[in-house]
Design brief:
18% strand, four-stranded antiparallel beta sheet, alpha+beta, 46% helix, 9 helices, 9 strands
Length: 228
């Protein structure tokens, strides 16, 4: 028991030193290759702690080797824009003055629901609350607020159409049917297939984004008594 305690203490101290040298970004804002290195270090560190058949020096050597690899990749990343782009990727503007950019979302394997979730975590509930939204290379969302946004929204917008697909479960929330929604989209000059995004809040305020067009804010005729 004492041997395991001492081995664990040594590995812990080695990890503390290595992580401190790697820098604060390693803890809060990791790039993809940094995340991979961190995961492998965590896995390697666990093995010599409990398995007495493995010399402790092997675990320490493996952690130090990964540290050196991390430092090498960091130098390569900082050597120019192309290596940085290859290793860490580039920021993606997923919302601009025209609205949601579905192509940029697809490039990053993200969906409209992922974007909305990230916005909610920062206190933005409607897609037009932002003039610009950027997914940074570390996966975090940076937002430039629309100066005309409603500061205290009275109702939560519900996503009804996501890149041409109707979300039937959400349609039930507004107590409406598919045909009525399609008729509304047709009246405003679109089709379900060409609709990239459609959200509606409890006041009937609709965010409508048609493919290759700027988004529009419209009024959807909610059925009597429907509000959330």
């Amino acid at each position: 028991m004492l041997v395991i305690f001492v081995r664990t203490l040594i590995i812990f101290l080695v990890l503390v030193v290595v992580m401190r040298i790697m820098g604060k970004r390693q803890i809060g804002e990791m790039q993809p290759f940094e995340f991979i290195v961190t995961l492998i270090i965590a896995d390697l560190a666990c093995i010599p702690m409990a398995d007495l058949s493995i010399p402790l020096i092997y675990g320490v050597a493996a952690v130090l080797a990964l540290f050196l690899l991390h430092q090498l990749f960091t130098l390569i990343e900082q050597s120019g824009s192309l290596p940085k782009k290859i290793l860490s990727g580039t920021p993606s503007v997923v919302i601009n003055k025209n609205g949601v950019d579905m192509n940029e979302l697809k490039k990053n394997n993200l969906g409209l629901d992922d974007l909305i979730e990230s916005m909610r975590s920062q206190g933005y509930f409607s897609l037009d609350d932002l003039d610009y939204a950027i997914f940074e290379s570390n996966g975090k969302l940076s937002a430039l607020e629309n100066s005309e946004r409603e500061k205290t929204p009275s109702s939560m917008p519900i996503l009804l159409v996501n890149n041409g697909k109707l979300l039937g479960k959400n349609l039930k929330v507004i107590n409406d049917d598919e045909e009525n929604l399609k008729s509304f989209i047709k009246e405003i000059g679109g089709t379900l297939k060409t609709t990239e995004a459609l959200t509606i809040d409890g006041n009937g305020r609709a965010y409508f984004k048609k493919k290759n067009e700027k988004f529009r804010i419209l009024q959807f005729p909610l059925r009597q008594g429907v509000k959330w």
